[in-house]
Amino acid sequence: MAYYWYKAFHLIGIVVWFAGLFYMVRLFVYHAEARQESEPAQTILTKQYEIMEKRLYNIITTPGMILTVAMAVGLISTEPEVLKSGWLHAKFLFVGLLLVYHFWCGRIMKKLAKNENSWTGQQFRAFNEAPTILLLVIVLLAIFKNNLPLDLTTWLIVALVILMAASIQLYAKKRRQDKEKLAQELAQEN
């Protein structure tokens, strides 16, 4: 019965952790773009994003990560023989990359608060695609284990994820260009 409790809370932790990571970097996008606003909007927005980032990271994202990892340890304790599985070693690698991403977000948050970050909103949008790819790989490894299919269907799914990520980037670029065009038109009218 412990296995099912560990698994349930492991899944809950994953959902919370990823929700936090996805939203965290979205806040970074807005924070970086707030630097382009005029005063007093720039100061007001920057302070608000700093508060939101800190609360999200400390109250939601990090506890989600801790719950995920703790419940994974619990799961392994109920089935220690799983440690011999190659798929789990691969999953550990990708979870390790996700942990690096998590702590890197914490570092970025601190740099943004000190106004020492030079990344643009567009760069943060691209950075926000990393957990999507990691989530895809981790889930596929967890579901298929050593039987990960590498057939046409799998590659089509991978291509779809890449296409979605590229579409998001192109849409953001179009929005930025439209905003710049509108600003130029307004400047010409004045």
Automatic annotation (TrEMBL):
Enzyme class: oxidoreductase
Cell compartment(s), UniProt: Cell membrane
Binding-site residues for heme, renumbered to this chain: 10, 91
Major subcellular site: membrane
EC number: 1.3.99.-
Key words, A-Z: Cell membrane, Heme, Iron, Membrane, Metal-binding, Oxidoreductase, Transmembrane, Transmembrane helix
Pathway connected to this protein: Porphyrin-containing compound metabolism; protoporphyrin-IX biosynthesis; protoporphyrin-IX from protoporphyrinogen-IX: step 1/1
Stretches assigned to coiled coil: none
Cofactor: how and how many bound: Binds 1 heme b (iron(II)-protoporphyrin IX) group per subunit.
Entry-linked InterPro entries: HemJ-like
TM segment ranges: 6-29, 56-76, 88-105, 126-146, 152-172
Needed cofactors: heme b
Function: Catalyzes the oxidation of protoporphyrinogen IX to protoporphyrin IX.
UniProt subunit comment: Homodimer.
Name this protein carries in UniProt: Protoporphyrinogen IX oxidase
Source taxonomy: Bacteria, Bacillati, Cyanobacteriota, Cyanophyceae, Oscillatoriophycideae
Gene designation: hemJ
